[in-house]
């Protein structure tokens, strides 16, 4: 599977058009299914990545270990009639991030255990991210410390993989932290060329010092900040002219490419420009489940129109209830008044609501919503009112007027701009 990614990136400038690949960072089955459908439609490979918070040796917030995630993707690929040998599995932000409240050595041992599990299960694209400060660290660890920790993780992965020669690595990290910015983005800066060079040279030299020169040849990408980001209600749009010097630097380091994190919610033109400028791996995460949530809530509004209150799923109310009952996954991210926090719990671009879809009460409400609407033919007029994009697709015969198919269509639609930018002829 890794050779598919290597070949695509090495040939990214062939035939006069830049090529890339988008990486769908999600563990939600419907979002994964949507990604598989888009790839099947494009006859392209699909890159699916689990993050260290979602999937780790303790189950993360999904309850899945790497073996479970791989099994889930394989099952969904079979159901969607998508060849599993065209699926590239990756691990995002693999490092001490989930345990950064612990002392560095303790957090690193847990990170080593985690990345060994990913490598052993055939995940071939691994983002070595040791940039997060642990207890006792300075707020921003020195590049040499980050590189040393990354090399430790790389050595563990090399030892754990069935075929280490198939492992591909990404180094570096974006600013700010994974999953979108928490605060204002006025200070967002494109990575300086000097900082990119420092990251590259320090990692290269440290890898060589640890006997990882061969692994360094399989470092395919480096994460830098291209000036794209989102917070709760704002998207920082890509300004391609600001990355011109980075692109020039990258041209001297081929076949290395850049990986752009937090690229969710950009406009279609931005994705084409990013790929053209060397950001050949585009990460998408919350945008897919954000679109899924929009579709589910639109269906709940349709349910309100069709069924008496006592028979409704009450999905939005159920989700609000479980988020209030277990606030750990949003409380530190959403601030302001009670009313402002209420709006953010549902409508924030950072989509912290995605942490709650696996709660049994929410799963039951989703199942009831789907069952309720499956027992009815949703009037086209209600589709037009609440799901206008899917209304057009139903009218055009492109999607069935069935609740689950409507949700999948909405999720898949969030990926189309990525696909068009990455797989241009």
Structure description:
The protein is α/β, with parallel strands linked by helices and 425 residues long. Helix content is 47%, strand content 10%. It contains 17 helices and 10 strands. The strands form 2 sheets. An 8-stranded parallel barrel has the order 1-2-3-4-5-6-9-10, surrounded by 9 helices. Strands 7-8 form a two-stranded antiparallel sheet. Strand 9 (257-260), helix 9 (268-276) and strand 10 form a beta-alpha-beta unit. Helix 2 (29-42) crosses helix 3 (66-79), helix 2 crosses helix 16 (403-413) and helix 14 runs antiparallel to helix 15 (388-395). The longest helix is centred in the C-terminal third of the chain and has 21 residues, at 286-306. The two termini are 22 Å apart. The mean pLDDT is 94.
């Amino acid at each position: 599977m890794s050779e598919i990614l290597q070949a695509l990136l090495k040939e990214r400038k062939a035939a006069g058009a830049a090529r890339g690949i988008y990486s769908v960072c999600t563990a939600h089955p419907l979002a994964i299914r949507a990604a598989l459908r888009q790839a099947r439609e494009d006859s392209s490979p699909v890159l699916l990545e689990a993050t260290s918070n979602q999937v780790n040796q303790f189950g993360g917030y999904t309850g899945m270990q790497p073996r479970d995630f791989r099994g889930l993707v394989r099952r969904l690929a079979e159901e969607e009639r998508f060849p599993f040998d065209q699926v590239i599995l990756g691990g995002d932000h693999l490092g001490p991030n989930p345990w950064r409240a612990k002392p560095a050595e303790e957090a690193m041992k847990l990170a080593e255990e985690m990345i060994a599990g990913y490598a052993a299960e055939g995940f071939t694209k691994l983002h070595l991210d040791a940039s997060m400060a642990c207890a006792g660290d300075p707020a921003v660890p020195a590049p040499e410390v980050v590189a040393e920790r990354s090399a430790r993780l790389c050595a563990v992965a090399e030892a754990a993989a069935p075929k280490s020669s198939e492992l591909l690595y990404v180094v570096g990290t974006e600013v700010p932290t994974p999953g979108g910015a928490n605060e204002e983005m006025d200070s967002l800066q494109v990575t300086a060329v000097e900082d990119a060079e420092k990251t590259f040279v320090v990692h290269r030299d440290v890898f060589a010092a640890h006997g990882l020169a061969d692994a360094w040849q399989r470092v395919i990408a480096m994460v830098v900040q291209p000036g794209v980001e989102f917070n709760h209600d704002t998207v920082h749009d890509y300004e391609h002219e600001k990355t011109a010097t980075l692109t020039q630097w990258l041209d001297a380091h081929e076949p290395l490419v850049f990986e752009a994190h937090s690229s969710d919610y950009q406009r279609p033109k931005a994705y084409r420009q990013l790929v053209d400028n060397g950001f050949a791996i585009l990460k998408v995460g919350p945008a897919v489940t954000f679109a899924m949530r929009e579709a589910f809530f639109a269906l709940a509004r349709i349910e309100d129109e069709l069924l008496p209150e006592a028979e409704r799923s009450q999905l939005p109310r159920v989700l609000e209830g479980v988020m209030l009952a277990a606030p750990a996954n949003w409380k530190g991210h959403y601030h302001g008044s009670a009313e402002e926090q209420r709006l953010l719990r549902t409508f924030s671009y950072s989509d912290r609501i995605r942490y709650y879809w696996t709660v049994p009460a929410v799963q039951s409400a989703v199942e009831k919503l789907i069952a309720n609407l499956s027992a009815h033919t949703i009037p086209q007029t209600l589709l037009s009112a609440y799901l206008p994009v899917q209304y057009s697709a139903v009218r055009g015969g492109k999607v069935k007027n069935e609740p689950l198919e409507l949700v999948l269509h909405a999720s898949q639609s969030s990926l189309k701009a990525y696909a068009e930018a990455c797989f241009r002829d």
